[in-house]
Amino acid sequence: MAKPSRGSDASKKSPMARVGLVARSEQTRRALSAQLQGLVGDMVEVYSASYGSDDMWTTLSCPVVVATSTSVANLITGYISPPTTMVVARRALYTSQIEAVLEIPHGSRVLVVCDMEGAAIDTIALLKALGIDHLTFFPYWPDLQGQHEEVELAITPGLPELVPDGVREVVNIGTRPLDLTAVADIVAALGLGPQAVQIASQRYLCATLQVAKKVVDLMRQRRGLEDTLRSVVDVAADGILVVGTEGVIEIANAAARHLLGIGSQRALKLEEVLPIGSERGGITIKRGYEDHIHSVAGRDLIARYVPLAQGRVLVTLRDVSEIRQLEASVRVKLGEKGYVARYTFDDIIAFSSEMRRIVKLAERIALHDVCVLITGETGTGKELLAHAIHNASARRTGPFVAVNITSLPDALCESELFGYEEGAFTGARRGGKPGLFEQAHNGTIFLDEIGDAPPSTQAKLLRVLQEKQIMRIGGTRLIPVDVRVIAATNRDLKQMMAAGLFRDDLHYRIAAVTLEVPPLRSRVVDIPALVDRFTQPLGKAVSPGVLRRLQAYHWPGNVRQLQNVLLLAAITCDGKYIGEDDLPRELSAGAGSQGSMPRPGVEVVRCRLEEHGDIGEFAAILRALLDGPAGRRSLSRVVNHHRGLTEAKVRLRLRVLQQLGLIVVRKGRPGCSLTEKGKMFLATLERA
Question: Once rounded to an integer, what is the mean pLDDT over residues 439-455?
Fold first, then answer.
């Protein structure tokens, strides 16, 4: 490095004494130059430069040159000659900087990162001189290779950009200031006299006291925050423990002391109060948290172990009995809204092989959070199965919201399912209303008669299943919902898909798993148990002859019809036993009156119609045809006026009536007309 002549502007600038400061880095130069300027700037001119910069020669021309470290002194000593005096400055650490280092866990391996080897060694020596001997230090500077792969924590005096990759945590203690002896040496070297030394020392002490005051204020704030946090922890309902690296309980709140039956008089190890097992030794958590159940003082506790920083572990404790009470309270509140599943698999009678297979499959499906489609004729117990699936699932503590699609008018179907915002339409509730999907959040929604969903609702249902979000009518924001969907229908959805009445993509979404509940006529072996289930609460029993008659009947209305028949028989029965004479006519040999269909035939047709919709809707169509043949469009206008049926629903119901032989559908002007069977069926309905 070329050295200019000693004659420079700095030597002629002012008669005031001059001091130059040379540092290794620009950051250190700025910090220490500002400190020196604040201490003696009114008595001397302060020049500063970082090593190798253009300003370094001007700085070295000063009568007194301050090297900020031994390594800097070694670099510049060859450029200094008498009468220039060089002072190698000693450096200090503020209390706040030392405190951050003292909080590092005992025995930690720590890199001390500086810009040069000598600076790193000096910093380590200073830390040890201050009594920080609980750590193992390793010096590091940019030219050093290797030797740091296994060290995950670093200390640096204001040079975090030099910390090598792979170091997990960095403690930046900031640029170390000049200490008081260094300031005194600089003033003495300048020959300013004892008074100047006294002034500089007073300023140094004042600056130090200001820093100390800030530290004290911060410590007070910290203690206040710690006291607040401790108070919050102490009033928490859950037991809370903080366990150190040696397994010693450092913090135990009031709830934890109560649950464990311990006082606060002495430090205890966790294994003394919780049976964690000697094989665990110090607690090691391999994942986010671990839950364990412990029996302590006659009560079962759920303990959750969560790893904290610096090797500590947080342990939360809850009494199992309190959790059960909380779950019961939640279920009561949900029950007040009607959002509770009332049945379990134990409530399902399944002695027949087919029913046992369905129940066994449903039990397995319940454990997996997938959509389920339950199919079967009217009255087979599809909703009972949906209740049981929910109660056997991980969502059992959440709401179970059941909704029958056919009970919702087309115009209100979307607002009921997805909710609406205030002002969305005339008559909208003030403040809006959450839909059934929102109310089923974290639980299950049961969509009964899914085959009757209007096309627009089908499209929205598909989006909810895909995106797991809903948007209220009149709203602008998406609301996330976590809901399991169980759907049911007595319709042939594949036939409806072929006719364009049900969306293929929605079917594939809801039918991830399909359960087909068998009709009662296919599970005759279950009838005795079902009869006992329905008659015992009524205080009745059936004779063997009645049981044979019940098992011989074809039950178009399935289990629901069986229950209704037994209820009616129990009401009309005089004694304890229901006899054959107490059974309805359709279960005996009686026939219908003239001009009407026989009762068994009526019930079969009625049940078939109920499988595909509301019997009143079919009756309205038949009644409209009494005046003569009519086309589909004119029928739609008439029926829609009375029943609110869309043309698509009228088309579907006409197809069902035709299949049952109640109407004839012709092409052209004649359109649809009633058959004799249709007239007899309608007459029977009108008399019923």
Answer: 90
